[in-house]
Structure formats: structure tokens, C-alpha cells
Design brief:
With 219 residues, this protein is mainly beta. The protein contains 1 helix and 22 strands. A 9-stranded parallel sheet has the order 1-3-6-9-12-15-18-20-22, with no helix packed on it. An 8-stranded parallel sheet has the order 2-5-8-11-14-17-19-21, with no helix packed on it. The protein is globular, with a radius of gyration of 17 Å.
């Protein structure tokens, strides 16, 4: 488990690494995150880091601070989520590229003012990307979201978020991933995505709220 501090970069060679768990984590060995950040951290950057496995309640990357960047990172077979951006704690997190595969409960939980761009999220349980009430102004752009074990993207919120954008992604239908975007709410924009296997393409968005904008998508 790596717990970087303010302004630090964690690279694939493990140059910045802390190995002491918090007291809560010490009592729950299955809850380790492979990489974790403290809420007081700021401007933490992960580059080409790989998170492999973890306990039953573990995440690959747990982000609990403002301004973190994951560039070309990967998570495989996390027990919980591949990337968890702590609701109410994390914001302005950027996930750029990388691959997030096989997390048991979901791929990436996205926070406010955060972006996931050019990433591949596949074969995760539940949904590839999870949106919640703390996801205002989140952008999901140019990603491949495929073969997740129910939904490509799931809006789990009560509709309190605003200005969420889902644009330019490839979210195909498959035996495992039978819905593209589940329960989109608020004024979400779903624009220019490729929903292969959905006919018509806009049917990939299941039960959208009245103010959701669904435009320019292809099948």
C-alpha cells in the first residue's frame, strides 16, 4: 500500500511509498487499498502504477484528496472498486489513459470536478463507472467501457449532481453489459458516444430523467 503526501509523484518503480496502515486499516486487513491518499494531500500524481488484487473490501486506488492525477495506471481484480474517489473528500481528480479490469463491485467511482479520459474499463462487477450525488461537473470522455457485468455507467445518485458529461465513449452492448447508462439524472449530457449493439442508439440510456440531453450517439 502506498500513501503519498502533498505534491509527490508515485511512479511505477515505487519511488514514493509508505507502508504503515492507518489504525482503521490495521483492524480490517481486507480493507487495504493497494494505493491510498490522505485527505490532507494535494496535487498527488500517480504515473504508470499497477494495482494487483487486494482484499475483499479493497480498492486498487483510493483517492481521498483534492487534485490527484492517475496517468496510464492499471488495476486488476480489486476486491471492491478499481478506483474510488471518496465522496465529499476527493475532487479535481484526473484519470488519464490506463486500464481498469476485473474489480468485483465496480470500475471507477467518479468525484466532483473530476475527469476520466481515454481509459479502458472492462469486466468489472456492477458498472464500469459509477456516478453519485458528489459527481457534479464530472466528465467521462473517449473511454472504452465494455463487458462489465451489468452496466457501462450507473447513476446511483438522487439527482443532486449537475453538469455531468458523458462524451465520445465506446460503450457496446454484450451478454454481460446489457445497459449503456443506467438511470441518468439531472442535466446530464450524453453526447457522441458509440453504443454498438443498441438499436436505436439512444436506448442505451435506460430511464433518463426529463432534463437529460441525449444527442449525436451512434449504434
Amino acid at each position: 500500500m502506498a500513501i503519498p503526501d502533498q505534491g509527490q509523484t508515485v511512479s511505477s518503480n515505487g519511488a514514493t511509498r509508505a507502508t504503515s496502515p492507518s489504525p482503521a486499516q490495521a483492524l480490517r486487513p481486507n480493507s487495504f487499498a493497494v494505493f491510498d491518499t490522505h485527505p490532507a494531500g494535494y496535487d498527488i500524481r500517480f504515473s504508470q502504477c499497477s494495482a494487483d488484487g487486494g482484499g475483499a473490501d479493497a480498492t486498487g486506488f483510493q483517492i481521498r484528496n483534492h487534485r490527484a492525477t492517475l496517468t496510464n495506471c492499471s488495476s486488476v481484480n480489486a476486491g471492491l472498486l478499481a478506483v474510488r474517489m471518496g465522496p465529499g473528500m476527493a475532487s479535481k481528480v484526473s484519470v488519464i489513459g490506463g486500464s481498469f479490469t476485473g474489480a468485483a463491485k465496480g470500475g471507477i467511482g467518479i468525484a466532483e470536478d473530476s475527469t476520466v479520459t481515454g481509459s479502458t474499463i472492462r469486466q468489472c462487477g456492477g458498472a464500469g463507472i459509477i456516478i453519485n450525488d458528489s459527481s457534479s461537473r464530472a466528465h467521462i470522455n473517449n473511454c472504452v467501457i465494455e463487458e462489465n457485468h451489468q452496466f457501462g455507467i450507473q447513476d446511483q445518485s438522487s439527482g443532486e449532481h449537475v453538469d455531468v458529461v458523458i462524451k465520445g465513449n465506446t460503450i457496446p452492448r454484450s451478454d454481460e453489459q446489457y445497459l449503456g447508462v443506467l438511470f441518468p439524472k439531472s442535466n446530464m449530457l450524453i453526447d457522441s458516444n458509440h453504443f454498438a449493439g443498441f438499436d436505436p442508439p439512444d436506448s442505451a440510456a435506460y430511464k433518463p430523467g426529463p432534463n437529460v440531453q441525449i444527442v449525436n450517439n451512434t449504434g
